[in-house]
Give the backbone structure.
Amino acid sequence: MTGDPEPLAPLNPSETALLLVEYQNEFTTEGGKLHDAVKDVMKETNMLENSVSLTKACRDAGVKIMHLPIGFGKGHPEISSNPYGILAGVKEGEAFAEGEWGSAICDAMKPEEGDITVKGKGGLCGFKSTNLDFMLRQNDVKNIVLGGFLTNCCVESTMRTAYENGYKVYTLKDCCAATSMEGQNAAFEHTFGMFSIPTTSEEIKKAVTA
């Protein structure tokens, strides 16, 4: 990732949501079924530590904190019996099984009182199978700040729909992780700028406290 981010205009905390995509043990924590795939990028971007720091700063500023985990029933009946692509790996590996340790939000990012946990995400886009849009509008949110996993999968899918739904979208270069730095950099350098304002956790902290 090259170049410094542009300074952001102030963001009204009461109109802003920090949307945290899949900070679950399968990704974040040693022993998680997908942790080995993302741990190098997590280390390179320092994304978990940055996310913890940003979440606290946003919560203190009055930003709405929204957690967006993914989960599946036993045997993953929500996914086709003949899946392909990324969902094939999720089903074959029995990842994100509801009620199990792997699907739990990691200790460092546990929801706190006043946070919202969005339920029903069983696919890639955070809007598709949930009432996320309803909850955002009920809370008068106009600005969405996005971090999480995977940069070029669920974060990107959610970003694109948020953009099309009329929100102002900010994506966090240092609070996301893909399965390679090549994929991470390609997303931010070539795609994310079409559907969001790529930025960093430090710039968002400044914007919500300006």
